Amino acid sequence: MSKPQSPILSAQDLTVYYPLRSKGFLRAVDGISLNLYPGEVLGLVGESGCGKSSLGRALMRLHEPTSGTLSVLGTDFLSLKGSKLREFRRNIQMVFQDPYASLNPRMTVSDALSEPLRAHFRLTNQEITKKVAKTLEQVGLTEQARYKYPHEFSGGQRQRIAIARALVLDPKVLIADEPVSSLDVSVQAQVLNLLKEIQKNTGLSMLFISHNLSVVKYISDRIAVMYLGKIVETANRDELFEKPQHPYTQALISAVPIPDPKLERERKRIMLTGELPSAESPPKGCAFHTRCPWVVPRCLEERPKLKEDSSGKRAVACFEVGKRP
Amino acid sequence: MSNSLWTDALHRLKKNKLALLGASFLILELMIFFLIPVLARLGYEAQDLELTFAAPSPVHWFGTDSLGRDLFSRVIFGGRISLTVGLLASLVSALVGVVYGSLSGFLGGKIDNSMMRIVDVLYALPFIFLVIILMVYFGRNFILLFVALGLTQWLTMARIVRGQVLSLRHKEFIEAANSLGLRQRDIVLKHLIPNTLGPVIVYLTLTVPSVILEEAFLSYLGLGIQAPLASWGTLIKEGVDVMDLAPWTLFFPAFFLSATLFSLNFLGDGLRDALDPKGARD
Amino acid sequence: MNPLLSIQDYKAHFYTRRGIVKAVNGITYDVHPGQTLAIVGESGSGKSVSQLSYLGLLPSPPLKITGGQVLFEGNDLLKMGEDQLRKIRGDKISMIFQEPMTSLNPYLKIGSQMIEPLVIHRKKSKKEAWKLATQALERVGLSRPDQAMESYPHEFSGGMRQRVMIAMALTTEPKLLIADEPTTALDVTVQAQILELLKSIQKENEMAMILITHDLGVVAGAADEVVVMYAGRVFETGSVDDIFYRSQHPYTRALLRSTPRLDQLEKELPVIPGSPPDLIAVTEGCPFYDRCSYQKEICKAEFPRESSSGANHKRFCHVEKIS
Hints:
CATH class of the domain at 5-82 and 215-316 in chain C: Alpha Beta
CATH topology of chain B: MetI-like fold
Helix content of chain B: over 70%
Structural class of chain B: mainly alpha
Strand order of the largest sheet of chain C: 6-7-8-3-9-10-12-11
Strand content of chain B: under 5%
Low-confidence stretches of chain C: none
Structural class of chain C: alpha/beta
Number of domains of chain B: 1
CATH architecture of chain B: Orthogonal Bundle
Largest sheet of chain C: 8 strands, mixed
CATH superfamily of the domain at 5-82 and 215-316 in chain C: P-loop containing nucleotide triphosphate hydrolases
Distance between the termini of chain C: 34 Å
Largest sheet of chain B: none
CATH architecture of the domain at 5-82 and 215-316 in chain C: 3-Layer(aba) Sandwich
Oligomer: heterotrimer
CATH superfamily of chain B: MetI-like
Shape of chain B: elongated
Shape of chain C: globular
Number of strands of chain C: 12
């Protein structure tokens, strides 16, 4: 996966701080820089409280970032306002986690899909109908679905509708925030395959956010690991799993259960001690040091920066990397 | 083949016996009161001083009152007034409440805070006394009556709508509408308000009886509707005065008032259950 | 060895306005002392209802237990009155749930909540119970148990609260622990810790555990025996190796294949078409019929009888051999 091309989305030192009633801030996103390249699927994985959803929303400007820069398709996204912002939005769309809450219960599928088209383009009714039909087909729904209401569909089907709505404007970037986490296990694979297929067919650039490492592995080309508002490691998918460098990544991979009894019996787990610190009072220095098996005095004082390695393809934020297995 | 939440709600409403009873009574009542004026052919003001306090008879179905006026006609006319005032005042309160509440909820933050504090202060004022003072000061104006009554009810409507809007604002489908690049105006009109209509309709059906009762109370005090016009409130007042002498003059208006209030309440309860989206898939 | 818990052809239905929901539709399996039985299934499979219902933890009506037996230490729980059941619940049979925040009373200190079962069931004095409870908190890995006893639930993180729940469930040294999705709401790194903890406690106390989950990875690591449920029915039972390596049921196989695995690289995940059925519309036939790739005429008409795939490995399917 060579990357001489420039990123289609580039965030630099993005922060999202929520003011707390008592003094201080909740640093949901604490200085994140990441690049999404054209046609790739970047998986963003992290556990609860790491800020991945906040990051997703910040990238969509559904919640304004507190500071930092964000460039999408070469445009300074954060500086857009009013109608220019609204117009630009068609280039970057989102699929949400909850298929029950992300669709307006009082709108038919047809209305939900035509509304964005009418808001952005001057199309005849015929053209709109055609586009809606095409998009429904793309997500594997039939024409019958058009005049139905969300509550008439199953969770998996609703998610397809949500995906269709996100695609109807032909966006260049799609941010998927835990798109399958609320679905039944037997239905997850359907939606994952659908996203994979669509991404391949349209060349969409996708940021796939999830706490489920197995799912992220299945769909991503590259993966970024988040912990307490910061990215601790990024690498190509295969490299991340073959040789995870950050101790948190190692622990995470080690903790994921695998549906194979023999393997489970034989594997040695890296057990983290302690609990996840609260995002309201993160530890000083490296946020991971309270649970890290490699901790040295420096970790309590300084915060490690995300450093790229010599090849430029991997980045890790840790002082001890390279000194440990 | 569509099965919108409205048709689903209607279907569920039909299954609620009490609500149907209430609705049927109201429809019947409305038909009689407004569409069949010929039934009140005897007129509500025609006096017959020879026949005062007559018991119900084939000519005067509900009997007559102290001035020999046909009680049946007076109950019908009184009903028209009471229902009209009730409905219109409620609509006024709904309009003010919905607009105020949606704006407050949607704008949020400091504006929402101040708007709601105003509501809190107004809530603390004893409205009925204010209305009475207004009535005494400005005279008993029909329009003033209904504006005043409407204004007593909008506060709760505003709170309800604001609560709904607040809870909807953070729902993913509103976030989605934002991310799709839709205008704020369209989001409020097409996404927020339609989803608040359920509670608004329910509350409306429960507001109407409150207003009718308030009007009855005012009229009972002599501050509402003026003779020779009548409303159920005035009729009840007159009836109470001569309760021993001619009980029917109290009974009929009181019966209609109560029955109407009950019906509206049953209908309101039924609508609330029917429109509850959680019940849609049971 | 005699089973600790023996469920025989157990049926429990919900009578709702829309119709009869056959949440549990004739299930049979045993739990042995010291063993972990995992009940795996998706939403609507009946896995939770099957345990909550016989303990009297679900409102009835609308629930109605319509058949079968649930024998605990030889006694049929279904025939017991509420008083008898209450003596067993929280004492010999304990439960922990998915959302520790809602299982703990936010207005009471942890200590007050923990001593309750000991005082009620084991007639301990408050002082004694407090001591035992503090020890239990230590056992589950809370570093400052005295402090924890004086704290309130909201002061703890999700993982810690779940540990408190486990400690509470263990104070009476139950013979059987029913854990309903105990780690689903927890991070995967915390999940690993909690599952380790449960395992070590089990070994120490010779306690049997029913682990209800939809996560096949968790099943593989924690279970000795497995029951696969779907739409109120049991599709397959057996040892964990039987289910994962030798399954002869189309649903189990399809489920295993369509779950992404961290140790494998798949080009494309095989998919089970459709979705789990509406429990009101279930027929007499196999509920998986519409989604199954081995459909036979008879599958639509009648639910298959039990057939054996090995010692203690049972399945319910009309199809003879799955390739």
